[in-house]
Design brief:
By secondary structure, this protein is α/β, with parallel strands linked by helices. The chain is built from 30 helices and 35 strands. The protein is rod-shaped. The N and C termini lie far apart (169 Å).
Length: 837
């Protein structure tokens, strides 16, 4: 309160006013300024212009109702305290004055009577009046502050939109504010003020929690009562509310009053529930997706990882948290094995989604490696600032492995697992681009298996496939890791020797031949020996050109190797004439087909003579096939076209052409001479051939005994059951059978007992070596003794010198054939050379 009091006295009695002034002037309590106004309207005007601390109002003013005057003053100056004065001690009037807004009520005779002034004195009465003023002013200030506080409280409550409750624990009654009731839709249906009415509205599932937390507060365990729960609304739905309260405690430490607020949090709970569901959905999604997800802060430290990331990295979410991303997610380039940069840092630096190497490999904590594709994206706040990154990693180990497998399959032969033709041509193309200088030395090898067709035809494609795989395994062990070995198709292979001179390449190719020569292919109860013809072409700068031309040169060299006896190596030279090159393509197939249709084949014959004069002489010749060249007119030996015919399945037609034309020639040469005709594996496996033979013999009127069919031992052994049946059918017709190239199969000889054979035609390789090789001589002697025991006659092939002729005579061979005996002659002019005893 300020030091002085500025008071207004409204009094129409001048003498009483003077007495009032005189009395208060004697007060020593505080300085006082008293303004006296006799008329109420003047007082009103004064109050509007001058501030007063207190007003003394005489209720006995004429022509006015004192209570109405108080109300007017309260309206005009609500903050100024009013002390009402009256001559009579009217209790009702005093009550009405106080109710109208007066702070105090003075009975003037009790204060200003002569007796009281005399008894107490002016000073005491003055002090009493000033004290009354001070108390009135203080009460008015307190009321003002209380009003402000109450208004502030009401504004706060209204602003917070909270309901208020007040629970008297002693009387067990509760006050609920209107807002509290409106939260539950109970404005027009007031709630009973007993706690049971409140508790009855609580959701059954929440009552236990509510009572527990209330008890903990009332027993001092909780400083504040606070609980979130559901209350029943008038519309029979439940509303989520937050109730908070604080207790007042008596001197014995017992709570006697509990009051607080209640907030409707239904919307918040609904939002929380939605956020929770979204979070759960996000978590379930994050845990369910197949990609690994790692989030980091802006410094690159891990914030969280999902289960897939745990599996790939080997780190648990707990272990990984707050670790540097490069420690948890170790990424390297799968090819170079060099570490990749921090994806989090790059995403932050570039401010956009980034992807790392397409060959990324993730190394887990345990050392396990995964092929992955990965990306990192920045995480931004609402204002666009980067606050972290999210890294998504997909395990593509199987996918990359599948891609690698497909790439491998596209470049390799599925049977032998060697490079295929397309891959080999690409390698050859690449190497020709790097052979521009004389210092560059590479060699192309073209390999073609010998006798593969016989295996394939007699035992089927499964046997042929097994043979190819075994041969590929043999050769694979003989090449360097830098070389390329490929299967070009069928039984043809290509070999590209990098940084290799022709001399070294020839040695490697000869090793291939030796390996195959020593190799024996076993299939069931059959044993085959095969060979390989190899053509070599040095890839030098002057020969760089079309890859197909390079392959053609190598193929030509391979063919030349076959012409020279097979299982050998031939190196292509610039001097070789292109007419020697044979291309196994559709052009040659058409050429052979045309030769069959236009009779461009021709027959020769070579005499087979008795080895000694003791044998009953009978003319015997072998029918030989030749092909006349269209351009030069020269004759081509069988080795020049038979491989092509075998490749394009033309041998069966050729065998029948030979048979028909040989029979026609026999009609031109009456007599009982014997003619040997070679049959291929295709005819052996042709069940209709015996019937065809019978028809042709009848057509030309030729005795079957004049025919001897030669079948190579390799073909017979490859399909012994069919051979036994075939030879038996031909024997029953009256024809004779010769087992050609006997000894080349190196098989057990017991199979001969199941064959209807008349002659054993000994392989020329053994015959040539007989004079100089004791082992070969001994083998031939054993064969001769066996043939005698089986009543078979022997024919020695390739008798090309007098030494060989003498040797076979000593061995006791029955017949001989070769250049020493007779040169091949056109059919009809072949006469055997008489061999002297």
């Amino acid at each position: 309160m300020k030091s002085g009091i500025n008071a207004l006295l409204i009094q129409d009695n001048f003498s009483e006013a003077q007495l009032f002034k005189a009395v208060v002037s004697f007060s020593e309590r505080t300085p006082l300024t008293l303004h006296h106004i006799t008329h109420f309207n003047d007082a009103i005007a004064q109050l509007t212009t001058s501030p007063f601390d207190i007003v003394f109002l005489d209720l006995g003013l004429p022509s006015n109702n004192g209570i109405d005057l108080i109300r007017q003053l309260r309206t005009l100056a609500p903050q100024v305290p009013i002390v009402a004065m009256n001559h009579s001690p009217d209790a009702a009037l005093a009550a009405a004055a106080l109710k109208a807004g007066a702070q105090d009520y003075l009975v003037k005779p009790d204060v200003f009577s002569p007796e009281r002034l005399k008894k107490l004195g002016y000073a005491d009465i003055g002090n009493l009046l000033v004290t009354t003023m001070q108390h009135a002013i203080q009460r008015a200030e307190l009321i003002r502050q209380l009003t402000v506080s109450q208004e502030r409280y009401e504004l706060a409550v209204q602003g917070s939109n909270d309901g208020v409750w007040d629970w008297d624990l002693r009387t067990r009654s509760i006050y609920f504010s209107d807002r509290w009731l409106s939260i539950l839709g109970l404005q027009k249906a007031p709630l009973h003020n007993h706690p049971s009415a409140w508790f009855s509205l609580i959701h059954p599932d929440d009552r236990k929690l509510f009572k527990k937390q209330l008890k903990e507060h009332l027993t001092g365990q909780r400083r504040q009562f606070k609980c979130e729960y559901r209350l029943l609304h008038k519309d029979k739905t439940y509303r989520w509310v937050l109730t908070r309260g604080t207790s007042l405690w008596d001197d014995q430490g017992r709570p006697y009053r509990l009051a607080g607020s209640q907030t409707d949090i239904t919307a918040r709970k609904s939002l929380e529930n939605s956020l929770y569901q979204e979070k759960e959905l996000a978590q379930v999604t994050l845990h369910s997706i197949g990609e690994a997800v790692i989030t980091t802060d802006r410094r690159g430290y891990v914030e969280a990882i999902n289960p897939v990331a745990e599996r790939l990295t080997g780190w648990s979410a707990k272990e990984a948290k707050h670790k540097q991303i490069l420690e948890v997610c170790r990424l390297i380039d799968g090819t170079t094995r060099k570490p990749l940069c921090n994806p989090s840092n790059r995403a932050i630096e570039e401010g956009s989604t980034i992807s790392l190497s397409q060959n990324s490999t993730l190394i887990s904590k345990t050392g396990q490696e995964f092929a992955v594709s990965d990306s990192a994206s920045p995480i931004r706040s609402r204002n666009g600032n980067i606050v972290g990154t999210v890294i998504v990693i997909r395990d593509v180990t199987e996918e990359r492995s599948r891609t690698q497998r497909l790439a491998w399959q596209a470049a390799h032969d599925p049977l032998t697992h060697l490079s295929n033709r397309a891959s080999f041509i690409q390698s050859l193309t690449n190497v020709t681009h790097h052979s521009k200088t004389p210092q560059t030395k590479h060699v192309l090898c073209y390999l073609d298996l010998d006798h593969f067709k016989a295996v394939n035809d007699t035992c089927g494609h499964e046997a042929g496939d097994q043979l190819l795989k075994q041969v590929a395994d043999l050769w694979r062990q003989q090449i360097r890791s830098s070389d390329v070995l490929a299967r070009l198709g069928g039984d043809e292979f290509g070999l590209l020797l990098y940084n290799c001179d022709l001399k070294q390449a020839t040695r490697i190719a000869e090793d291939f031949c030796n390996t195959i020569q020593a190799f024996r292919f076993n299939y069931g109860d059959k044993v085959f020996n095969i060979g390989v013809s190899i053509g070599l072409v040095a890839i030098s700068p002057e020969m760089i050109g079309n890859v197909q031309e390079l392959l053609s040169l190598a193929d030509s060299a391979c063919y030349t190797a076959k012409m020279k006896g097979r299982n050998r190596v031939h190196v292509h030279t610039a001097k070789e004439h292109c007419s020697l090159m044979i291309s196994h393509n559709s052009q040659w197939r058409d050429r052979l087909t045309l030769a069959l249709e236009t009779d461009r084949f021709c027959l020769h014959r070579q005499a087979i003579a008795a080895a000694s004069h003791t044998i009953l002489e009978k003319q015997h010749s072998e029918v030989l096939l030749r092909l006349r060249d269209d351009s030069s007119g020269q004759l081509m030996a069988p080795m020049g076209f038979i491989p092509t015919a075998e490749r394009f399945q033309l041998m069966e037609q050729i065998d029948r052409w030979v048979l028909k034309h040989a029979l026609w020639q026999l009609t031109q040469s009456p007599g009982n001479s014997l003619y040997s005709i070679n049959l291929s594996a295709a005819s052996l496996n042709d069940s209709s051939f015996p019937h065809f033979l019978k028809q042709q013999l009848a057509h030309y009127g030729i005795q079957p005994s004049r025919l001897c069919f030669e079948i190579t031992e390799v073909v017979v052994i490859a399909n012994l059951n069919r051979a036994a049946s075939f030879t038996r059918e031909l024997h029953q017709l009256g024809c004779q059978i010769a087992l050609d190239n006997f000894g080349s199969g190196l098989s057990a000889l017991s199979y001969l007992k199941n064959l209807s054979v008349n002659y054993l035609k000994i392989d020329g390789h053994f015959i040539k070596e007989a004079p100089t090789d004791p082992v070969t001589y001994a083998m031939l002697k054993a064969i001769q003794q066996m043939s005698r025991a089986m009543q078979l006659q022997t024919i020695a092939k390739s008798v090309e010198s007098k030494d060989v002729l003498e040797t076979v005579r000593v061995l006791g061979m029955d017949y001989v054939q070769g250049y020493e005996i007779s040169q091949p002659q056109p059919f009809g002019s072949c006469a055997p050379v008489l061999v002297a005893a």
